[in-house]
Amino acid sequence: MKIAVIDYGAGNLPSVERALGGLGADVERATQPEQVKAAHAIVLPGVGHFGAFVAGLRERNLTEPLRDAGKSGVPILGICLGLQAMFSSSEEAPEEYGLGFFSEKVTALPTNVKSPHIGWNQLRRVRESRLLCGVPADGYFYFAHSFAAPGSAAPTVAACDHGVSFAAVIEQENLFGVQFHPEKSGETGVLVLQNFMESLS
Amino acid sequence: MTLARRIIPCLDVDAGRVVKGVEFEGLRDMGDPADLAARYNREGADELVVLDISASNQGRGTFLDTIRRVAEQLNIPLTAGGGIRTMEEGRAVLLAGADKVTVNTAAVRRPELISELSQQFGAQAVVLSLDVKRTNGSWEAYVRGGREATGRDAADWAAEAVNRGAGEILLTSIDRDGTRSGFDCEVTAKIAQTVTVPVIASGGASRFDDFLAVFTAGCADAALAASIFHLDTHSIAELKRFLAAHGVPVRRMENSKTVSRVRSESR
Q1: Is the CB of A12 less than 8 angstroms away from the CB of B99?
Q2: Short-list A2, A43, A21, CA closest to B75
């Protein structure tokens, strides 16, 4: 199974590639629209600024192929900023559009808590999750972000609280997203990536 | 559901080896960075910090290689730095596999370095390394490995760095570093209450009680130590068991063990 890891020019890709490769995935770094069109599954990792992220996708002509892939049933896993880009827009760059798979808006974490939300946190399960299959209820995941999609967003299967309830894990048919970094979350993170890969077969 | 307090081992690296400064003796070799990284990853460290303490410029290439070798061993976050002067050097550290880069002396000289790195890589990737020394009831920021005073109030500089886009503060008490007399909870609490980003306390760790104190009285979000972990005098698992028993939220490796069991049973 070939998994395309989207390279938009600023992400720390080796750790994601290493984690997927360690689970037996055939990982290809994708910078071209053709690679996205040919992918059986897509991982969309992201760190940094929402505006730079969607601009990076646009400059590489990856935005439309990604939208098409998502609509045509190709499994996509968004990680951190990659999850945020699956929504319609973000307060971080109000002039930009996300991929728009989900209509909700990404907003800044509230000012009454420390931001960025950096560190290991637990999840609150909202409904049955494929990605979290076998993950203990008290398992910890590593987060590093200042913006988040609302916990009330339609595809939320697990939320996390940091001043506000936000979407930590989203799932809807072929679309998956995690606000934490599974590639940096020890054994629990490996299990989430493994569950994503098992959902492909 | 609570954000866990982090335990972070630190590797001071010189010429590709982990070293520890020893009074009157110079540097003592503590092992291979990749070996130590693999061990801490396994033992439940929440993150790893690797600092280049080599005085020479030739060390830079070796250090990037060390970051690559260390990153390969980890499935936890990696922070790296030491002597980062420019945007390009910061980028090289991140591209070598670090998730975050620390800046110190160069950022005091030219604070725009923080803004530039933050705009390019995000606040979560930029850590201000802040070395402080107590002077007349207040704390002053020091640079060049604690050798040079800046004349700047530590809290003021921390606040400016955060405004410019630093996403975390790695706060080292020069007074306590290497003394084994415990973290400076007073300055940690002061900085933690001044800034809106997480604060990692460093310098002086010796006993389990020191960690408990810095997470309670010191309001720290994370605590960093080097030699007490390298020397096997303290295991991370035991430290976390102690902290959990005293009500400090920590990530326990027991959770992962549960995962393994569930995984094998489901096969």
Answers
A1: yes
A2: A21
